[in-house]
Amino acid sequence: MPLNIIIIGCGLIGPRHAQSVLRHPSTRLLALIDPSPTAPTIAKTLNTLSFPSLSALLSTPNIPHPDAAIICTPNHTHVPIALSCLEANIHILLEKPISDSIPSTIPLLHASNSHPETKILIGHHRRFNPYITKTKEILTSGSLGTILAVSGMWTLFKPSSYFAAPSDWRKDKERGGVLGINFIHDVDLLQFLFGPVVRVFAEKTTGQREREDEGHTAEEGAAVTLRFESGVVGTFVVCDGTPAPWSFEVGTGENPLIPRVGGQDGEGYGGGFYRVLGTRGALSVPDLKRWSYDGGEKSWGERL
């Protein structure tokens, strides 16, 4: 029997999740949940049912009970929707971040402990990307020696349409911002690769959008320094207001809506986003090029 999956939220990412559910032989797209007036039309294109709320679906006769829900609504709505799913014994894949603040996540943590039979998974899928799994393999092999430092970037330009209604919550500093929406992916990957972060310092970039729209209060970027429990140190620049190619999306081609950029050979890898420095070698990601003095004298006067 296929698992009955519901998608809650039909914004930017919801339909992409729906397509994944439709493609998998072990899952069935039961319904799309969203109060938006456009939701029924989107549901029709996906050949599935549409409901304005989870309660509306659950109260409808002759509809199978959902096995799991994929929650991809605005950040500040994640926790109340997830709590409703837990109460209905529906397993959850929750888009990152868990919420828009640490205090607001606490009720969900407590509720999760009270429902151990119901699983919650946060959507940090990039750990399974082949470029990242290969990077992890190289780091684990010891071929770079002791890891000393990492430098990373996430730099793209988001158009004004990205912040337009009904997604204007993205420009609110209490709900949106590039750190919680995008940089959180890299925080997860960096901890996956190098272990827990124990100290952080950051400086914001100068906001540009607020000059044209006083309602745009969300941060647009930052320079971040990191100290990992392992002793590794890191630097990271994140910005969603610059026309630049250095990001996970451009480098890996994961998001079909964001074009890849060719490298010097014209064959991808123009979106390099991590540089890893070790005592025996260095690694660039995603081209996975290793630099070292293997077989020769270890000196800056020698060719790498």
Automatic annotation (TrEMBL):
InterPro entries membership: Gfo/Idh/MocA-like_OxRdtase_N (IPR000683), Gfo/Idh/MocA_Oxidoreductases (IPR051450), GFO_IDH_MocA-like_dom (IPR055170), NAD(P)-bd_dom_sf (IPR036291)
GO molecular function terms attached to this record: nucleotide binding
Sequence ranges assigned to domain GFO/IDH/MocA-like oxidoreductase in this UniProt record: 134-250
UniProt domain Gfo/Idh/MocA-like oxidoreductase N-terminal: residue ranges: 3-104
Gene3D superfamilies: Dihydrodipicolinate Reductase, domain 2, NAD(P)-binding Rossmann-like Domain
Family: Belongs to the Gfo/Idh/MocA family.
Protein name listed in UniProt: Gfo/Idh/MocA-like oxidoreductase N-terminal domain-containing protein
